[in-house]
UniProtKB/TrEMBL annotation:
InterPro entries: SQR/QFR_C/D, SuccDH_FuR_B_TM-su. Keywords: Heme, Iron, Membrane, Metal-binding, Transmembrane, Transmembrane helix. It comes from Microbacterium gallinarum. The keyword Metal-binding applies. Pfam families: Sdh_cyt. It is found in: Membrane. This is Succinate dehydrogenase hydrophobic membrane anchor subunit.
Amino acid sequence: MTTIAEPRAPRAAVRRKGPNLEKWGWIYMRVSGVLLIVLIFGHLFINLLTGTGIHQIDFAFVAGKFATPFWQWWDVLMLWLALIHGANGMRTIVNDYVGHEATRKVLVWALWLSAGFLIVLGTLVVFTFDPCIGVTSDSSLWEMCQSVAN
């Protein structure tokens, strides 16, 4: 009779006092995944299937979307959820496959720092976007920016 060798034993998980972060991470992945499906397909529908489709997407289209708080919050929510969802997924992979504790901690910290940096940077771009910064008189946006300024 042939026997199958036992799989590598996982690290012993020590139950700590306080909130179960793994449970909340698991719940977050499910909830954010469902919300991301709605947000992404809404984004794709508006950008690709309405109006003239992909031909309508240019600087003015993006400027028009970022001029309304609804689309600003739509895109920021999509950005936040996607970055945290992705970082949490990568954290799970690092926890599963990196055996050296110090290396694992460095990688997890790097994941969260990079996700945090991109969240801050993306949020600043969305909420401080001004299509008239740096527009000169020979730009196609000159007339629009002049009418907004007056």
